[in-house]
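Morning F.,

Quick status update on the modeling queue. The single chain you submitted on Monday has been processed. Sequence for confirmation:
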Amino acid sequence: MTDPLQDPRFFADPYPTYARLRNAAPVQQVPTGSAGRFSYLVTGYAEAREAFTDPRLSKNTARFFAGRLSDRDLHPAVSQNMLATDPPEHARLRALVTKAFSTGAVAKLRPYIAGLVDELLDAWPEHGPVDLVAGLAVPLPVTVICEMLAVPEADREQVHAWSGELFAAGDPRRIDVASQAVGTYMTDLVAARRGSPGESLLDDLIAVRDGQDRLTEDELVSLAVLLLVAGHETTTNFIGNAALALLQHPESLARLKADPELFCTALEELLRFDSPVGIATFRYSTEALTLGGTDIPAGVPVLIAPGAANRDPARFPDPDRVDLDRGAAGHLAFGHGIHRCLGAPLARAEGELALRAVFARFPDVRLARPVEQLEWRHTRLTRGLTSLPVEV
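Structure tokens below.
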């Protein structure tokens, strides 16, 4: 059997593959990579939710790969970040940045985000074609997180390019090169901010490192890199995927145009319907366990698929349809448990303000090409469009 998550058809539409696998078993062994390696894939909703909180599934990649021969050359800031830690290290690191992404903190950012959305849409033509991804979904979250981390405006395009390379599926060399570049860049930026401090989130982290000694220098750089990359990649996908879903479901879009206040609850259904994260980041079993009736031995990778779990009909009836009345707040697009995405409030705010503004200012916006001709990024970790051509 070949790796079902590497079929080119999977990237264009993963949901038939997810359904086939889930129907066979909500947890099963699948081949991954080459040389006979395998992982356990979790596609059922109940099983995914359980796996996200099982302490026997570790995220400590350094421990898993210790002593294994590898020719990879990832920068430590990428290979050893907060996502790749377990308690108590994870709780210590997360506590340092949680406040910056709280609901209250994000509420204060909303006027800035709304203004930025208006600036981006001002550059759109009054009539004609435009790429919604390049013209909105990419620059909005990139600009917001770069502003929070004091990344100079002149560097932001390059930072985004490196971030995109980190998700270059099937090309480890490109990923390694990008990791070295972004890790080195952030190391230099930290040094520059020490010499000329300000009031950014990065300055706050530097102060914690230098004043309270609650961070090592490597942890400081890796945390900043993680916030920079994770702080915009998935939100870009969320905005693009949600816009496409609404354009494909005109009855739902018409309801939102008639009552924009529905956007807040609609976001949850849009996140469920086409989750910006297809496969959650790496976990492995530290001891033997049974999940969804499947025995998993110790020491093997376990892949949790929110994209599959969110289309599980046992939890969400008729899951392949957008239903704004569904009540989808229990979706797993942001994960679950202690590793749940801390940037969820910011992603929601950016998605809401972006989508509201697009459909208010351009009520006749429509797809500029058939859905079958749209190009999707070739990575199983995230789910997102390379572009979304629309006519306004």
